[in-house]
Write a structure and sequence with these properties.
Layout lengths: L5 E6 L3 H12 L3 E7 L3 H11 L3 E2 L2 H5 L6 E4 L6 H10 L3 E4 L7 H14 L3 E3 L7 H11 L6 E9 L19 H18 L3 E9 L10 E8 L4 E7 L27 H6 L5 H11 L23 E6 L2 E6 L2 E6 L3 E5 L8 H13 L7 H20 L16
Parallel strand pairs: 1-2, 1-4, 2-3, 4-5, 5-6, 7-10
Antiparallel strand pairs: 7-11, 8-9, 9-10, 11-12, 12-13, 13-14
Length: 399
């Protein structure tokens, strides 16, 4: 047993940080030693909660010698700049998805980390989830033969959660492709082997008041002949969590009576400025912020909608409680123990890389391949043809 403790500085105290906060608070392998955010109330909340300094610039945080690793959860368009800066100070980096907005930015981030000799991990994405990783292990066992087809589907209210203007601008990293296809494509790539050969897609932008992609459907072909269908809608109508007995994306029980809550909250924001203020109020340190560090009762594994992996000898269906396995003669269920701490798998990978020197699965190279596949999805929808994403890597490239 090691006493090694990862000392983390946080770049951006927004929504992504609040989702990781229970993990940071309850996992004894990490401690938060500093933060930066442009909002003074968020910085004050951090200092109150953690007794650690906060800064109004990332440079000041990077200069703190107590910081060993930066968790970068700034807006998407700043990821590339902030990762390069962190690496220049010799800090290890975990950057939130999406890795960046272009493949060239991803490459620059990878090169900066290599030059500095630091680890670069990209996450959280839902391909970290234990049911997904266990499904990949079942595939690798060879027991069920090769993967032939994957079905992925998720319907949420993503587009109607409070947004800043750039979150509704595709060019600035907004919309469901950069924010949500990253999750789904990362999972599909992990289950399908990683090497995407082509993407053929359509996207939907059906609400003029939310002028970005809110839905997509894609057909993905892998090297070796396997293929996947990947569908997502964030328009807040059907909720595919119903398929998991109303267990939400974070593994929490949902009340069906809360249907339509996201759209109802937006009714209080008549302008873009009011919507931005509403988001800030609900974020860490805001006037409507409620501490979310307690571990909920009945927590199950996180998920990103339905996935069915069709192998030669069985269909595999991961879910919040385990994996349903449908073979020629019987249906079985491999139950998974409930998580003690949400997203602990992220810290497992982070700790293994930084403290033990083990190459991470969610490396910069892996995440660049996911970004390239998502950008191919966008380009296919624009052009009306199939697109071939660059820089693809196998799921076992670092094993």
């Amino acid at each position: 047993m090691t006493n090694r403790l990862l000392k983390i500085g946080v770049v951006g105290l927004g929504r992504a940080f609040t989702l990781m906060l229970p993990t940071f608070v309850h996992d004894s392998r990490v401690t938060l030693v500093g933060a930066t955010d442009p909002i003074a109330q968020a910085r004050a909340q951090f200092e109150k909660d953690f007794g650690a300094p906060s800064y109004d610039s990332i440079e000041a945080l990077c200069a703190n010698p107590a910081v060993e690793l930066l968790y970068i959860a700034s807006p998407h368009q700043f990821h590339a700049e902030h990762v390069r800066l962190a690496a220049s100070f010799g800090k290890h980096v975990m950057v939130e998805k999406p890795m960046a907005l272009t493949v060239d930015e991803c490459t620059g981030m990878i090169e900066a980390a290599h030059r500095a000799g630091v680890h670069l991990i990209v996450g959280h994405s839902h391909s970290f989830n234990t049911p997904i990783r266990r499904t990949r292990e079942l595939i690798d066992s060879g027991r069920y033969g090769a993967v032939k087809m994957i079905h992925a589907m998720n319907y949420t209210d993503f587009l109607y959660r409070p947004r800043r203007p750039e979150e509704l601008d595709t060019a600035a990293g907004g919309g469901v492709i950069h924010s949500q296809a990253t999750h789904q494509m990362d999972i599909v790539r992990l289950l399908g082997g990683g090497l995407v050969r082509s993407v053929r897609a359509h996207t939907g932008a059906w609400d003029a008041s939310r002028p970005t992609e809110g839905a997509y459907s894609a057909l993905i072909e892998f090297e070796g002949g396997a293929f996947a269908s990947s569908t997502y809608s964030g328009y807040g109508h059907y909720d595919s969590d119903e398929l998991f007995s109303n267990i939400g994306e974070m593994g929490q029980a949902k009340n069906p009576a809360d249907y339509g809550a996201a759209r109802k909250r937006l009714e209080a924001a008549a302008t873009s400025a009011e919507e931005t203020a509403l988001k800030a109020a609900r974020n860490y340190g805001g006037s409507l912020y409620t501490a979310g560090t307690a571990l909920p009762q009945g927590l199950q594994h996180q998920h990103f909608g339905q996935f069915i992996v069709s192998c030669e000898k069985a269909d595999l269906r991961p879910g919040p409680a385990g994996i349903a396995i449908y073979t020629d003669r019987e249906k079985t269920f491999e139950a998974l123990s409930a998580p003690a701490i949400p997203r602990q798998e992220v810290i497992d990978e982070l700790f293994s890389a930084v403290a033990e020197g083990k190459p991470p699965v969610h490396s910069g190279e892996w995440a660049r391949a996911t970004t390239a596949a998502c950008l191919a999805l966008l380009e296919s929808a624009r052009s009306g043809g199939s697109c071939t994403p660059s820089h693809q890597v196998s799921h076992n490239a670092n094993s």
